[in-house]
Amino acid sequence: MPLLLSLRVAALSALLAAIGGITLASLLAHKQGLFWHLIDGIINLPLVLPPTVLGYYLLITLSQRSTLGSWLGNLGIHLTFTWGGAVVAASIVALPLVTQSARAAIESVPSELLDVARTLGRAPLAIFLTITLPLAWRGVLAGIVLAFARALGEFGATLMIAGNIPGQTQTLPIAIYDAVQAGETDRANQLSLLLTSAAIVLLVSIRLLTNRISART
Amino acid sequence: MKPHKLAVTIDLMVENFHLQANFQAQDEIIAIFGPSGAGKSTILRAIAGLITPQQGIIRLGQRTLFDAQQNINLPPQKRNLGYVPQNYALFPHLSIAENIAYGLLPHPRHARHQRAHELLELMQLADFAHRRPGELSGGQQQRVALARALAPNPAILLMDEPLAAIEESLRQKLRAELRTIPQRFNVPILLVTHNLSEANSLASQLVILDQGKMCQAGPKDEIMQRPTSPATARIVGMNNILSMRILDTKTLQWDAYNLEVIPAPQAGQRNATPEVGIRPEAIRLLKADSGQENTLPARILDDEDFGPEHRLSVRVPDQKPDLEIRISTPKLARLGLNPGDKAYIQIDPASIHIFP
Q1: Interface predicted TM-score (ipTM)
Q2: Is A77 helix (H, G, I), strand (E, B) or coil?
Q3: Nearest chain B Cα to A120, which residue?
Q4: Residue B250: per-residue pLDDT
Q5: I need a labelling partner for B249 at 20 to 30 A (CA). Which of A187, B22, B147, B326 fits?
Q6: What is the pLDDT of residue B11?
Q7: Sheet containing B205-210: which strands, arranged edge to edge?
């Protein structure tokens, strides 16, 4: 069922994007200078690049013929034309969304709080967990929800790296495309409605989360 | 545990700013004072370890916190000091008790609890233990910030503009509370302020900072009455800077007038023409010449009304510069003098300060 597959792929992708995004965000927070802007730019590329370009790059890096692809293949991990590939594609497009949101949330924590925490003897990680995250969690969560929404709607890159294999890699967006191609308008309608409703629910949640942030400040 | 002696030497490069300071403090409250942009907050942050100076040494008692040459740079965590920023920076998501206990982690839970409650009692905040900082008044927040900083028993307390965020009506009460902290907690306080009255009210020693350079440091009386340079004098409100000639051991000549001065200028300085400073409070305004020493005719040029006191600008005919006088409002009312009126001024002989 494309819905279940989509949810599984989106959930795992959002999780991976969350882990990667929060880590990158804490690394990038408050950093200045051309070098860090460059790193930020690279992370944000998936936001701007056409999904087909992304998909193509993924294909050539992960295919059995590439170095990375064959190395993974030896470990028993095949990503091309499997649902794992769908996860990779969705994670990469979702990552910048988490990173941006999380970074903004982390940077919004007043630095005096962190200064005082340091003079009180707490280690940087403890400060991150006891001060920064508790104060930034809404922004971070908003980013993760957005990432989930994005992952749910991923189409172009997914199609290229994972293909259109029903039950294996046919996510909701791909199923819709497939239905339209086959002229199955009823199915296309149903699936589109499903995806749209899910998106609306997610976007409203994000709004609620970010409102609570502004209400507090 | 007696107060530690703080020896501070800083030579700090921050943006285009070269910051230098060098002072020793054993006294209870020391205030770093200077105009905005003088680098006061920067010094505090450097001592706290939040900024790393390019060169210099920071020592606290027997401990070296920072020594560029020996590659010593203790992180703030290890410097054993308390830091209270301008807006207190209380953790909004933690209760008052949790805020106070935040720096106590090395201790076992029971001890942390006990210490936090000890401080809550001492600061009269016991009823607020489980409230959040947002629910407290400005004065209460200051007490929480102090309690939090003092809980781990720091060797010194650093405060950045402690009363800047407090409304006028509360300041006096909070100043009184602050003054009691060094004795009650056995800890010296180094605070930064751009408010001279506050610096005087709180501290026993002043450090004057101007554009990154330390101009003078010492007991506040010394600085207020005997600043070492005209620039420092202006910073501390000694706004009358005059050129005089030393005639003999008790007389100075100010153009057309001879003034008596106590204490005597050094012998062997005859005919020297030093600059001289006089505080506005040291000049009395009179309606008529009472025959006392140092009485000169003057005309009132301008009157600035501060409410409880006035600042007058007066001119002694054919003399430069114009002088600034401070007089209480009731006194001025009794004299009934206004801008344009002719009057007399009397300069206190003991308040004519010759710059070294």
Answers
A1: 0.83
A2: coil
A3: B103
A4: 85
A5: B326
A6: 67
A7: B72-73, B63-67, B55-60, B6-14, B17-25, B213-219, B205-210, B29-33, B189-193, B156-160, B81-84
